[in-house]
Amino acid sequence: MAASWCVVHGAWRTRPAPRRSPLNVYLALVRRELGGAFNSLTGFVVVAVVLLLTGYSLTDIIGKLNGGADDRPVVEMFYQSAYFWLILLPVTPVITMRSFAAEKATGTYEALMTTPVGDLQVVLAKFTGALLFFLLTWLPLLAVLAVLRQVTKEPAFLEPRATFGAFLGLTLMGSLLLSMGCLASALTRSQIIAAMLSFLMGVGLWVVSLRPEATAADGDVLGRVADHVSMMRHMGDFARGVVDSRHVVFYVSGTVLFLFLTTRVVESRKWK
Amino acid sequence: MDDVPMIEVRDLTKRYPGRTAVDGLSFSVGRGEVVGFLGPNGAGKSTTMRILASFMPATSGTARVAGFDVFHQADEVRRRIGYMPENNPIHLDMRVREFLKFRARLKGLGWRRSRERVDTVLQQCGLMDVQKRIIGQLSKGFRQRVGLADALVHEPDLIILDEPTIGLDPHQIRAVRTLIKQLGERHTVLLSTHILSEVEMTCSRVLIMNRGRILAADTPQNLERHLSLDGQVVAEIAATPAAVREAFCDVPEIERMDLSAVEGEYTRLALTSKDGQDLRVVVSELVRANGWTLRELTRSRHSLEDIFVHLTKARKEDA
Description:
The structure holds 2 protein chains of 2 kinds. By secondary structure, chain A is mainly α. Chain A is 76% helix and 0% strand. Chain A has one domain. Chain A has helices at 2-9, 22-39, 41-67, 74-80, 82-96, 101-106, 108-113, 119-152, 160-187, 191-209, 221-228, 231-239, 245-267. The model of chain A is unreliable at 1-11 (pLDDT under 50). Chain B is of the alpha/beta class. Chain B has 2 domains: 7-226, P-loop containing nucleotide triphosphate hydrolases (Rossmann fold, 3-Layer(aba) Sandwich); 229-300, 2-Layer Sandwich (Alpha-Beta Plaits). Chain B has a 6-stranded mixed beta sheet with strand order 6-7-8-3-9-10, with helices on both faces. In chain B, strands 2-1-4-5 form a 4-stranded antiparallel beta sheet, covered by helices on one side. Chain B has a 4-stranded antiparallel beta sheet with strand order 12-13-11-14, covered by helices on one side. In chain B, strand 9 and strand 10 form a beta hairpin. Chains A and B meet through helix 1, helix 2 and helix 7 of A and helix 2, strand 6 and helix 3 of B.
């Protein structure tokens, strides 16, 4: 085989190197990320925990509604409850902790980074995979609301404006928290450290929301900044169906910043 | 482009804080060669390979693969190499075929081409029967073959294998070696190992490395020939030591002669030649001329292992 190959071609020659559009490589990576989430037990555990807590919190809210009337849509009540944050803040680090840390620990990171794939492509693919998985875990919530609406014949359970706003808010907020998680995961080879680091960042941002609302008249700059980045206030608006462009810009720019930092961390192996 | 060596490394140095892993390394590998990197653990083999696979940059010096700089033209280099890192890291949760298809896509193959190539490498590496199994459930030998199939899937010009047979049982090692030999027929192969018999069996050229430097570079046969100057010829002759000494003392090719009486009134003669030439003919002629009986005549050849231990030990002592 070799002899004939050499004779036919006369000499060793360079074979044409394969080339493919960056988008296809990106999609292959995203598919792998999603597949990886469901190939492990972690993925199913996350989905199960989110489902359980969502179900429990809605039961609780309905129980409270039985005690007295409330004008707010159920979705808004849910997002303003402590349950929502109890689900959101720990779940995002668990989703992203695998992204880079697990690959570094098993060595597949080296195998990945020696293929003709760009650093940015890898970061974006890992982020997209995490975001899609995150949204997937929240999908059952829609089904739960639909069932409630069907049973109670109460349109407030799946009010389109509030539902759209809530899911948009969820996507934006999830993006920011997941991009923080990607950064944490890129910084270390330990999944536990990655999860703790991103949980701390998320909780740090959330704690700011606990400050009492500041008013422009207060003149307290810190207070107004805290008010501006308050995730609880943002989510309140989104759940009412109010899409404030300031909130969107805040989350999109935050996500871009953390993804940029992640890319720099991934690139940093070239500086050492 | 075809006249350019597949690998060209000049004064390559890689320093880590407090340690120099690769120290002014220079070598080149021509197209179609199967070259073995031989060295003890920590010799700098893996670091050199990682640099060549453009995973990390060198501190100084240059390395080119197929004429492309591994740092500045990393993408071009990566398209042309199939790299299997140390310990063969692969996604254990994926199925064999699924994994190879994913890797083929990453390496730039289209849908149709990746399917064709995956079929070919599955066949080539003897993985057809396990293609639908989860990699984590396969034996280490099969996993290693999956790693090799991954390195091959995009038909690279250069295949870099870091310790491809580590942790395998003898049967698996033999199978993987046969596979590597076959690869050498169509690809340039650079492999690292600290198992000497491996390079003797699979490589056309050996680079012996220690403490980040190349100590010797040649074919396994030449290394044995050049470096085994002190190869001895041992004979057991039915004669007294004095008689044997008298017969052999005038032979100019002999540098050193050791005599000792052994059981059965034989004399054991150990000769070292001056320029590494084979003294067996001289011994047999003299024995015949004297009418003695000869019951043993052997040449103790220095294996690559001796050379390796000799070279790396000498270095340690220098240090």
